[in-house]
């Protein structure tokens, strides 16, 4: 969750309250976050030097806003490009795709999507390798049918993740990065 928060703070400075509101507005489908867990993540990021408190003259009284530091941006970029096997695959992929727009170029976005795609393919291969002696799809006994149904769901969900990432890769405009760098310099 701390890298999701860090990515949000790269996009714009936010307070604890604003971060919590973002989670309540839909991010809880990726990561569940209470005020306490968000506050803890902010303290950890601040202690590590990844974020700093920013002064904003128009901020409400006692509203501390935080923004990513250069160090934090570097740590976030590294996290974006290196999905780890120890992470919850679906949550970490969704968080990274959510934050793709924070990256500056299409090439960076493509690199992240390719890393996610490799991870999704590995996850799919791993779940397909699960012992299929749990029962065949047509088995009549509950002790055989439901474990098989659960495995089937996992395979379908993993295969859909692979297809979704392939679709996102296919939607990247080949010249989008050039347009982004060239805008405003005519």
Mean pLDDT: 84
Largest sheet: 3 strands, antiparallel
Element string (H = helix, E = strand): HEHHEEHHHHH
Number of helices: 8
> Spans of 5+ residues with little confidence (pLDDT < 50)?
177-186
Q: Pairing-aware structural class of the strands and helices?
A: mainly alpha
Could you give the count of β-strands?
3
What distance separates the N and C termini?
A: 40 Å
**What general form does the structure show?**
globular
Assembly annotation:
single chain
Helix proportion of residues, in percent? 55-70%
Topology:
Layout: H1 2-11, E1 14-15, H2 16-24, H3 35-48, E2 51-54, E3 65-68, H4 70-81, H5 89-98, H6 106-128, H7 142-171, H8 176-182
Description:
The chain is mainly α and 186 residues long. It is 62% helix and 5% strand. It has eight helices and three strands. Strands 1-3-2 form a three-stranded antiparallel β-sheet. The chain is globular. Residues 177-186 have low confidence and may be disordered.
């Amino acid at each position: 969750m701390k890298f999701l928060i860090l990515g949000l703070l790269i996009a714009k400075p936010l307070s604890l309250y604003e971060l919590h509101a973002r989670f309540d507005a839909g991010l809880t489908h990726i990561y569940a976050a209470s005020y306490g867990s968000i506050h803890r993540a902010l303290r950890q990021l601040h202690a590590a030097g990844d974020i700093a408190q920013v002064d904003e003259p128009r901020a409400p009284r006692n509203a501390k806003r935080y923004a990513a530091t250069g160090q934090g941006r570097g740590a976030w970029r590294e996290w974006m490009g290196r999905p780890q096997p120890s992470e919850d695959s679906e949550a970490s992929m969704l968080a990274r795709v959510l934050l793709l727009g924070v990256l500056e170029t299409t090439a960076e976005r493509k690199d992240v999507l390719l890393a996610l795609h490799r991870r999704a393919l590995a996850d799919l291969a791993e779940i397909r390798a699960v012992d299929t002696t749990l029962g065949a799809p047509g088995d009549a006994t509950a002790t055989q049918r439901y474990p098989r149904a659960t495995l089937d769901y996992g395979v379908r969900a993993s295969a859909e993740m692979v297809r979704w990432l392939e679709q996102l890769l296919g939607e990247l405009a080949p010249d989008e990065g050039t347009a982004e760098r060239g805008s405003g310099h005519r």
